[in-house]
Specification:
The complex is a heterodimer of chains A (112) and B (114). With 112 residues, chain A is mostly beta strands. In chain A, 0% of the residues lie in helices and 55% in strands. With 114 residues, chain B is mostly beta strands. Chain B is 0% helix and 53% strand. In chain B, strands 2, 4, 5, 6, 9, 10 and 11 form a 7-stranded mixed β-sheet that branches. Classes of the chains: A mainly beta (112), B mainly beta (114).
Chain lengths: 112, 114
């Protein structure tokens, strides 16, 4: 079953603006990951944040994790048209590492 | 980094036939592999977890007799969609992990049943 819920479901912005996507989950986790998926293609792993971490950066990406609220956010700064894609959060919370529960995803459209 | 190769990347088959999808870990031994399915405009849903040398564990609602999973070696797992029907058309993607590590995804397979 899908544990994560993401909002917004769709986000449309102009190039250069920042994009923020949120993810909520229900059970305890080992880590939370964010993926990007271009239409009809495979997954691109963006960033992994462990349950004992609160914030992580990678290039133009910033991820926060609040385990008390069971939520995470992904911020993409200075967005580009090439960032247009679907973004999914995925939680890894069981005893079997690597078994992921995906959120519903956010469709991001960046207009040039 | 760890590489997982999935083959084929796309396949079209006739209704009633079976299709096999392979998932290989190229540079590590995968003790566990996972199979997911994604319908158009939806998220990924876990279908089953397979451990090398043992039977796969299927998620609720996934027919184990229809989706046969074999994980005969530490580098290869296969998913066979038996007697495929148009409603089985979907994007199937595998991931592999070893021990307490994150999983690495294959490129996915787009199955179209006509």
């Amino acid at each position: 079953s899908q544990q994560g819920e993401e909002d917004p479901q769709a986000l449309s912005i102009q190039e250069g603006e920042n994009a923020t996507m949120n993810c909520s989950y229900k059970t305890s986790i080992n880590n939370l990951q964010w993926y990007r998926q271009n239409s009809g293609r495979g997954l691109v792993h963006l960033i992994l944040i462990r349950s004992n971490e609160r914030e992580k950066h990678s290039g133009r990406l910033r991820v926060t994790l609040d385990t008390s609220k069971k939520s995470s956010s992904l911020l993409i700064t200075a967005s580009r048209a090439a960032d247009t894609a679907s973004y999914f959060c995925a939680t890894d919370g069981g005893t079997s590492y690597g078994k992921l529960t995906f959120g519903q995803g956010t469709i991001l459209t960046v207009h040039p | 980094g760890a590489v997982v190769s999935q083959h084929p990347s796309w396949v079209i088959c006739k209704s009633g036939t079976s299709v096999k999808i392979e998932c290989r870990s190229l540079d590590f031994q995968a003790t566990t592999m996972f199979w997911y399915r994604q319908f158009p405009k939806q998220s990924l849903m876990l279908m089953a977890t397979s451990n090398e040398g043992s039977k796969a564990t299927y998620e609720q609602g996934v027919e184990k007799d229809k989706f046969l999973i074999n994980h005969a070696s530490l580098t290869l797992s296969t998913l066979t969609v038996t007697s495929a029907h148009p409603e089985d058309s979907s994007f199937y993607i595998c991931s592999a992990s070893w021990g307490a590590t994150e999983a690495f995804f294959g490129q996915g397979t787009r199955l179209t049943v006509v």
